[in-house]
Structures
1.
Amino acid sequence: MLIDFNFRIILEYLPLFLTGLRSTFFISIVSIALALTTGIIACACRISGVRIIKYPAIAYIEVIRSTPLLVQIYFLYFGLPTLGLMIPEIQTGILALMLNSGAYIAEIIRAGINSVDEGQLEAGISSGLNYIQRMRFIILPQALGVTIPPLLGQAIVLVKDSALLSLISVMELTRCGQTMTSERFMPAEAFFTVAFFYMCIYFVLKAVADWSQRKLIFREAY
Amino acid sequence: MIEFKNVNKWFGKLHVLNHINLKIPKGEVLVICGPSGSGKSTLIRCINRLEKIQKGEIIVNNTLVHDKSINLTKLRGQIGFVFQQFHLYPHMTVLQNVMLAPVNVKKIAREKAEKIAMKKLDQVGLTGKSGSFPAQLSGGQQQRVAIARGLAMSPEIMLFDEPTSALDPEMIGEVLDVMVNLVSEGMTMCVVTHEMGFAKKVADRVLFMDEGKIIETGTPDDFFDNPKTDRAADFIGKILTH
């Protein structure tokens, strides 16, 4: 029962959990940055209308969105070496998270761009602004507002998805819980702690989301 | 100045512009009216190539509008366009809205562009609102900003697509007044509108369209008082009695 909950063992394993937390944090930050870049590029390709870059972008987005992340991770981790490509686990994990989130981010950005009223585009066209100028001055500033909340949502998803990397023996937070469980057989304490740290990351990201919503997002002034 | 030569356009199977032949000389004020879906908006949207055409040609100032090799930026710089729904940029102030194209398309220096913008805002009576955002303005004020935005590029032609149709009745007058002032400056204007008062006061010619065709043209007095065709008479009766 709860009385049996052993806080001392958590303290004992705290250094391990903190390394795991640091690892999860590092993997997430790097993956989010890379995924954002991937997403922006994939979205730009997809809406470009230039066939040779549009169709590969669509293929990438659809393949990622139609397959489970775990399968993608396993494909990269077990599949790539048999094809002659050896990458360490952490890099494999970051690559998987980047490719996975990148596809979702591409769609989030595209939805944001599509949400801007057609008339805005026509007003820009009529005044002679070219494609890049219309994007820069008219479309993207308005798309940004509706894009930031789902983007931060995707960032939160990515942090939690990084738990799957424990399955390819990346020493991140969830893996630390597994380690402690196998050494001491105290799964309740182990995964309670793991969950607690994920919650901490979640609330930090949520605070960033709320702050950005107040500060960065353009809202029509009423 | 603007010439339509046998222009045809289809939206799928719908023949929106059916053999349009039309000449608009410099300085003319042309009012286009007709029932909903008659192709009048499409007609003026073709002039600055917001719409493609499938057959025929449109010539603006000796430029073949739908030719692929023309300088579209230059063409559009000569033509101001005012939309029914204003389409102001909601994330920019009034001044920024008016300055955007002069600074980025014409590459005019900021200080100079600001002067031009303030002059145009003065022309529509809104200098006091230069720092406001569009959502803080009434519909009539927003449409006047949209007109100033069009004028800031110093166009030779102004196109108006039902500029007062989205406005509350009490705001229609202020927008029409601005347009009447433009007429007195000699601007070439194509106005899609059902405002008979405006047409009678300033239009040189009224053009009546139905089902993609030009049914009749005439001076405002002739058209409204003695329409030649039954369809026009029917239409005028409807806008008078509503």
2.
Amino acid sequence: MNVMPPAGPLGSGPLPHYVSNAPFDPKAAEKLSPAQERIYLASQWQLMWIKFKRHRLALVSGAFLLALYLMILVCEVLAPYENQSRHTDFIRAPPQSLHIFDNGTLRSPFVYGYVYKLNLENLKREYTVDTNQVHPIRFFCSGDSYRFWGLFTADFHLVCPAKDGQMFLLGTDRLGRDMLSRIIYGARISLTVGLIGIFISFGLGILLGGLAGYYGGTFDMLTQRAIEIVHSLPHIPIWLALASVIPASWSPILVYFAITIILGLMDWTGLARSVRSKLLALREEDYVLAAQLMGARTPRIVGRHLIPGFMSHLIASATITIPKMILGETALSFLGLGLRPPITSWGVMLNEAQNINVVALYPWLMIPVVPVILVILAFNFFGDGLRDAADPYH
Amino acid sequence: MLLRYILRRLMIMIPTLLVTSMLIFAIMEMPPGNYFDTYAAEMAAQGERADLRQLEFLKKEYGFDQPPIIRYARWIGGFLHGDFGYSFEYQMAVKDVVGDRLYLTMLVSFCTIIFTWAIAFPIGIYSATHQYSWGDYGLTFIGLLGIAIPHFLLALVFIYFANVWFGLSIGGLMDPQYFNQPMSWDKFVSILQHLWIPVIIIGAGGTGSMIRSVRANLLDELQKQYYTTARAKGLHPRKALLKYPLRMALNFFVSDIGSILPSIVSGAELTAIVLSLQTTGPLLVRALQTQDMYLAGSFLMFLALLTVIGVLISDIALAFLDPRIRLQGGSVK
């Protein structure tokens, strides 16, 4: 405490000079409460996260998708059977149901075995449940051996059927392969086709839209026309035409990449359009002029100053187009023009369900429809939530 | 002013179609070899000898000994006087192979658009005027399901349940005996009986997105001051809604056709394959698989033409409705 000098009579000496010796804090007048601080000082991404969290459905969908994408990392372990392992005694067997009560006694999960009989009148395979055969399901066990991502051989599974028993929870297909395992393996292909496709269309969209928006003039005009043309074409017939060009002799992995490129090639127009219109608005801003005056080159201004400004928005709109790609792949493979059998994708599996007679007799072949719809709904909700969160004026 | 706008739009259409045709021709040319090589190889595989002289003649006839540019010029030149090339597979002019199918595709697409409008409009209005009610949530969710379920899966599910529940077989666009028959009253009735199923299936996706956009646009309009003023002056709610905000929302409604039409045509093709409709879809896939390039190319060109003209019509309709567009002379988007 500094001691004030004794005040003299009025006008006799200098006024007392007060100095506070509390530490200097320039923001003392506008102190933020902790709650305000969290919002005012948050980065753009943190703000998005806060807004995104409020959208319950989007959050759940996001978690669901995240779980699926984590699942495809280890699908060999999760699937009870190996992808291509065939059970010739159980061709087109209907789904088995999981039980935990056997004659009124509780026991670990199990399935009842099947008795197979060929109906000689209509040559239909008939499976009847035999409650004497009890196949308890094993957990953390060794079953079919597989090559993990094609790298090393292993046989560890999360769940396996009983030794010498079966477990076809979703039935089997034409070759006696377990549908559930194939759906799990198919996720690896079906879910990544859209992602790689979106990278391609994202790159094309940013590049072309960015150049058109920043340079304007003839290039802009040409890009605009190109966008209009691609946009006005019916996508699926063009996809079909492009897919039919892929030579039959290509290896599955090449076909896979060709399909993703085809999907990406038709899809960049929406992104290019939004990049262009954003750039047209942003390039008039003062900070762009400042950067130009300081000698920054065009690629730096576009890439460093302009694009990051609406990157979040772009990602959100890209998310909404992923389902379109997944559907595109499913449709192409369903018609037999997309991915081909050694590859397992949901579309390839649905290819078997193309015939109405087959569908009527073996309806479980349509089950891959369920994950397709779930994933597309989830992407729609997730994308909606992201878009709302990325919009700063909302 | 309106006339000039229409002329301008027509002028833009020509280069669009020209570039589209080049694109399609390039895609058709891309696979190595041509139909004749495939055919000769197939015959050889079956142990038969193809008539090489006939093949050579056909090759010459269709310009396969000349550079692609010339073939392209002949193909596109033919379009101008109604010659769409020759289908190698069917050994007929493309025009005869296509026949009724193109009209049926147009019929299905047209009915689908009408269906989409008829369903989406009232639902969109209901959703917007009852925002956040249970009805709104339910209808929005159903619309979203329509978007999420791909056409061909919906078609499969439809077939399955029609078979299981009603014992019906719902494939086809008419009873088989009418196909390739001249139009008659019975055929017309038969088509109408079959038409509603593909129309519902194809329309589901478009209806879903249409409901969303009607709802969003109408909600925007309902928040504007002119609407509040109209209500404050005592205008009956229904009249206030129908007279002003709805007319504004109608513009988006018309212009949206431009963006959903390509997806309707796409969906029509796929659904046609699953339901084995006698439209262009199944034939297109077959032609693509056998490299019957003129048939496939002309098909793709027809589909592109169909969408481009559809978009043109919606743009012109919009110009009629909305003076701002024809006065500025700009395009819709």
